[in-house]
């Protein structure tokens, strides 16, 4: 865990509401693995008070790439920060994905949940595996990461809510016939993950969860999620959990 | 003797900046960034006789210059503290105050008795002010006589310095503090979080799984400062806390009557906030030509 004042190298909108943020963060980039996150301050003052947890979407040398969606006050303020400015970054935090041997990676992403999976896909490719990425978004314009995946020769299948690209419907509709011999790595809305558990009961897998966080390091016990073994902390026990152990109550 | 060395309720501290209970775990979580030996003391996560699971999520939500939490005193219990955390903290050279919670007087007493025999513990902080549990916490701290009964029972079974952590959500804070003093407490921690809530407009339901939570952060600093100011008349040493984020906040609490201060929520935003406050206070004392920080305590009262 490092605390780093990271210079913004690049920060731009890559799809409506989605932004890519590239930071010079040598200490953190050197140690970050797929599924881990950074906890960053979006501003300088006492409001917004808390850091924002963002998944690492990739790294190249000393540069760390984040991909996020503007969803509230914190991310809206973050969106105003410009190249050359510095961001206060804590990381890398949490437990990331681990490859399940003997099975090819099937990556299932919903919306901004694609961020950690882009990093995982690149690492899988570098390790000689053959990942397939399934991405569900609201509309065709929200497909992000396509160029990076294509450059690495990683296939991408898309579903959209409005049918403007790929199959119309949830990303889990793309699973049929694709589960044999695979291990699932997922990140997306709770409804997506719940459906995934229903459709792929015997398939080994891991899921990255999201939660509002205060400390980000396991100290405050604030980001509890339900698992078969009781409450666990998204920040320190996760954010990546075994798909089989997470419990949804609604 | 260093400018910053103080004694709080019989506990010797190398500086007056402590980690507030519940915000610093058992010290290990932040060890890479904040060596616990550099703090005045680490006040541990509230510790109960048996492990407690805590409240249903969501447990935190950000508010204007603050946050609400409804953790519900999740903790791994006394045995874990004694077997894992206290030895680690001792190895780090940290001064340790254990925050004690319970559902009944007997549970508080049982924890205090075990820790009384433990060399790695410099003092206890009785939590009678947590707003997030039905039994224990604020159930004891809301009225003078229940607070008295609890502190009296614990006092009989331990010789350790005893701080009692108070809630600002009471009718007569000074009266409660006076009864706590009469029960044999050595000091007061003031204040715990304020009860608050937030509502989710999409779901049209309370945000927090436990409906209400405790408000902390810069938003509550003036409230906490006023509490310390009023408690100064009680005559017990005070550990001041509530919204302290900078050395100047800390200095205000000392001037209002706190012997030492604790930092909580600020650590989430700036993990090294406590170390920065230690340095800032040192610089302030040097600038003002003050030989020891204790000379500031209560000076704003004239």
Instruction: Give the number of DSSP strands of chain B.
Output: 16
CATH class bucket of chain B? Alpha Beta
Overall form of chain A: globular
Number of domains of chain B: 1
Can you give the mean pLDDT of chain B? 96
Helix content of chain A: 10-25%
- Which assembly state applies to the chains in this document? heterodimer
Number of helices of chain B: 9
Report the structural category of chain A: alpha/beta
Helix content of chain B: 25-40%
Question: Which percent band covers the strand fraction of chain A?
Answer: 35-45%
Second CATH tier, the architecture of chain B:
Alpha-Beta Barrel
The order of strands across the largest sheet of chain B is 3-4-7-8-9-10-15-16
Structural class of chain B: alpha/beta
Account of the 3D structure:
The complex is a heterodimer of chains A (250) and B (302). Chain A has 250 residues and is α/β, with parallel strands linked by helices. Chain A has helices spanning 26-29, 73-78, 114-126, 146-151, 190-199, and strands at residues 2-15, 18-24, 37-40, 52-60, 63-69, 86-93, 104-110, 132-137, 156-160, 167-168, 182-187, 205-208, 224-227, 230-233, 240-242. In chain A, helix 5 links the parallel strand 11 and strand 12. The termini of chain A are far apart. Chain B has a single domain, classed as TIM Barrel, CATH 3.20.20.70. Chain B has nine helices and 16 strands. Chain B has helices spanning 78-92, 105-116, 138-141, 144-155, 173-182, 221-231, 247-256, 265-269, 273-288, and strands at 6-8, 11-13, 17-19, 41-43, 60-63, 66-69, 96-100, 123-127, 162-166, 187-190, 194-196, 199-200, 205-206, 213-216, 238-241, 260-263. In chain B, helix 7 links the parallel strand 15 and strand 16 (260-263). In chain B, helix 2 (105-116) packs parallel to helix 4 (144-155), helix 6 (221-231) packs parallel to helix 7 (247-256) and helix 7 packs across helix 9 (273-288). The mean pLDDT of chain B is 96. Classes of the chains: A alpha/beta (250), B alpha/beta (302). The A-B interface holds A 1-3, 41, 46-51, 74, 88, 90, 211-226, 230-231, 236 and B 22-25, 29-30, 32-33, 45, 53-54, 56-62, 64-67, 69, 71, 74, 217-218, 245, 265, 267-272.
């Amino acid at each position: 865990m490092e605390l780093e004042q990271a210079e913004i190298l690049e920060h731009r909108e890559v799809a409506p509401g989605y932004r890519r943020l590239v930071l010079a963060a040598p200490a953190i980039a050197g140690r970050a693995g797929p599924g881990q996150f950074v906890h960053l301050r979006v501003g300088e003052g006492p409001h917004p008070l808390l850091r924002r947890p963002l998944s690492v979407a990739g790294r190249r040398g000393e540069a760390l790439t984040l991909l996020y969606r503007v969803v509230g006050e914190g991310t809206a303020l973050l969106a105003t920060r410009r190249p050359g400015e510095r961001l206060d970054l804590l990381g890398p935090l949490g437990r990331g994905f681990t490859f399940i041997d003997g099975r090819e990676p099937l990556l299932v992403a919903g919306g901004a949940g694609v961020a950690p999976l882009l990093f995982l896909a690149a690492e899988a490719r570098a390790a000689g595996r053959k990942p397939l990425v399934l991405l569900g978004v609201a509309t065709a314009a929200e497909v992000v990461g396509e160029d990076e995946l294509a450059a690495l020769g990683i296939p991408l299948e898309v579903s959209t809510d409005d049918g403007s690209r790929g199959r119309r419907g949830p990303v889990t509709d793309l699973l049929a016939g694709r589960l044999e011999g695979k291990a699932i790595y997922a990140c997306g809305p709770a409804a997506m993950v719940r459906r995934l558990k229903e459709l792929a009961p015997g398939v080994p897998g891991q899921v990255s969860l999201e939660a509002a966080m205060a400390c980000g390091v396991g100290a405050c016990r604030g980001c509890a999620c339900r698992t078969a073994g009781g409450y666990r902390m998204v920040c320190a026990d996760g954010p990546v959990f075994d798909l089989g152990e997470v419990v949804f109550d609604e | 003797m260093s400018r910053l060395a103080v004694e709080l309720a019989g506990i010797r501290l190398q500086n007056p900046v402590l980690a507030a209970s519940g915000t610093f775990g058992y010290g290990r979580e932040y060890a890479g960034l904040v060596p616990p030996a550099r703090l005045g003391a680490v006040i541990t996560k509230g510790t109960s006789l048996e492990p407690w699971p805590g409240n249903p999520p969501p447990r935190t939500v950000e508010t204007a210059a603050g946050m609400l939490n409804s953790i519900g005193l999740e903790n791994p219990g006394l045995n874990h503290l004694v077997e894992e955390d206290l030895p680690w903290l001792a190895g780090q050279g940290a001064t340790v105050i254990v925050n004690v919670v319970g559902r009944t007087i007997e549970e508080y007493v049982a924890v205090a008795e075990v820790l009384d025999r433990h060399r790695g513990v410099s003092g206890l902080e009785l939590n009678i002010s947590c707003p997030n549990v039905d039994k224990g916490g604020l159930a004891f701290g809301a009225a003078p006589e229940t607070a008295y009964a609890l502190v009296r029972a614990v006092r009989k079974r331990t010789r350790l310095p005893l701080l009692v952590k108070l809630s600002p959500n009471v009718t007569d804070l000074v009266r409660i503090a006076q009864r706590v003093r009469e029960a044999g407490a050595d000091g007061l921690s003031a204040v715990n979080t304020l009860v608050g809530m937030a509502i989710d407009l999409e779901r049209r339901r309370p945000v927090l799984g436990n409906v209400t939570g405790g408000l902390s952060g810069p938003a509550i600093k003036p409230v906490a400062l006023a509490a310390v100011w009023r408690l100064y008349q009680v005559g017990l040493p005070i550990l001041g806390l509530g919204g302290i984020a900078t050395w100047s906040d800390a200095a205000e609490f000392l001037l209002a009557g706190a012997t030492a201060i604790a930092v909580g929520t600020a650590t989430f935003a700036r993990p090294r906030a406590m170390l920065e406050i230690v340095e800032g206070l040192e610089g302030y004392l040097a600038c003002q030509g003050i030989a020891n920080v204790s000379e500031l305590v209560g000076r704003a009262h004239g």
